[in-house]
Amino acid sequence: MEAARKLTSHREFEQRRSLSLIEGDKRGTSSKKVISLLFAIICISILFNVIQRTSFIENDMTEGNLIRTLQEEKLYKKKLMAEIAQLKSSERIEEIAVNKLGMITPSEVKYVRLTSDDSSPKELAMKSGDKPNIR
Asked: What average pLDDT does range 47-69 have in this prediction?
């Protein structure tokens, strides 16, 4: 009988031992799940942080490009305004009128008055269609 008790107690011991191993595995599995979940959360937050920083860097680069382009356009506008002022200058217009169009400046105009001996200034004015301005 003693041998039977020992055998029974040994079997119970083995069953308890295997039960504790199974329960330990369950505890280990739940802690592994928690650790896996924490690891996944950390990885996702690191990935989000990297994406966010990349986005900030791209926005800074785009902003820098826009500022540089704006400065270039302002400089181009100043050059165009200077060119417009030069093209509108009276010296340039006079130069084109004299050299290309053959005009002369008013100080170089010489008026010639043609009269005949038998016509009076009043008659000459009547022929040209002007009212006589004789005093």
From this structure: 91
Q: Show the tokens assigned to 133.
A: 């301005």
Would you say 132 and 126 are in contact if contact means Cβ atoms under 8 Å apart? yes
pLDDT at 68 over 60: yes
Measured CA to CA, the distance from residue 87 to residue 79 in angstroms comes to 12
3-state secondary structure of 134: coil
* Contacts for 125 with CB less than 8 Å, ≥ 6 apart: 131, 132, 133, 134
Strand segments, DSSP code E, in the chain are: none
Q: Say how far apart CA 110 and CA 105 lie, in whole Å.
A: 11
Between 1 and 65, residue with greater pLDDT: 65
| Torsion angles phi and psi, residue 132, rounded to 5 | -70, 140
Q: How far apart are CA 14 and CA 22, in angstroms?
A: 12
Task: Report residue 24 as tokens.
Answer: 């330990």
CA 113 – CA 42 distance, rounded (Å) = 105
pTM flag (> 0.85): no
Q: Is 73 helix (H, G, I), strand (E, B) or coil?
A: helix
